[in-house]
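User: Predict structure, ligand phosphoric acid mono(formamide)ester.
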Amino acid sequence: MNKFTHLIDLDDFPIEYIKKIVKSGADIALNTDEYSECCKGKVLATLFYEPSTRTQMSFQTAMLRLGGTLIGFDNPETSSVAKGENLKDTTKVVSSYADIMVMRNPVEGSAKAAALSSDCPIINAGDGGHLHPTQTLTDLLTIKLAHGQLENLTIGVCGDLKYGRTTHSLCKTLSKFSGNKFIFISAPELSMPDYIKDIVKANGCEFEEIYSLEDALPKLDMLYMTRIQRERFAGKSDAAIDKYILTKDMLRLMRPDAIILHPLPRVDEIEIAVDDDPRAKYFLQAKYGVYVRMALIIEVLKNENPVKLFHEEHSDIICKNEKCVTRKEKYLPHSFRRKGDMLFCDYCEAAQP
Ligand code: CP
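Assistant: Predicted complex:
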């Protein structure tokens, strides 16, 4: 058991804990000023190894609105990472300056790896194409405030489902709420990874995989659009992959009470003309990110829920995922979780065939 309430993956926490953060986020949205001294004297570090607008600035705004202060970098080239410093040393040092640390890193499993050497709680702000749990909290608050419920919804998830970490975190968590159904809409090359489909199934939710966005639209309570994650294609072209664009004309296919979410940034997946439709909630979604992250910072600093992050060490097994942090940071212990006959990497969740 580690010493801190690290938020690496919402799956590490009971559903009641997630509901509590969402409920608290809703209260903070209405009564923001009442929370203005909750983190007085506390320091938040934001370590962003890859670009961000919303996640970084909403965390910073959240801490400032709670009365705390900030340190960090938004470009590793301006830190000693540029001199070759490893993740362990950067984490160890910054965690001795801060009370809580938010990390985004392009390498899968890096937030969990950082938790191994951190002397303060770590929040995963996106680890490569793997997970983005605080985006999910933002999404949940938006859905709850729009629909009044997180259960019994038909949820369309469209775009780059292979590399879209926001869709992985969202489907893992929403499948824990009873009665939700998923429609995964993507080009075959960018379909939802098997391990996410297995989790959705194991949580008792139905899903279907289809190609046509138009066919899905009339069935949906929520459409979650995502962009193609070009930065994860490792030099390969995405030119041959079919793109999805939600146009204003297509809105006539949607129910009047359906909502449209997008984690943003948008490239061209949603026509600008859609923005004025009352069902378009994506700018509100970005705004709610501040409130739910305020709720999360308060909860994590209470440090009441340290969770088990690592399971079985197998120094002889090398994770099969080339994008796993254990491939880059060679000093890390190789750790796996057993499910049935299979082992799954504790850092990146890749199955070890
Ligand atoms: N949704 C999201 O993670 O946006 P940023 O990349 O701008 O942080």
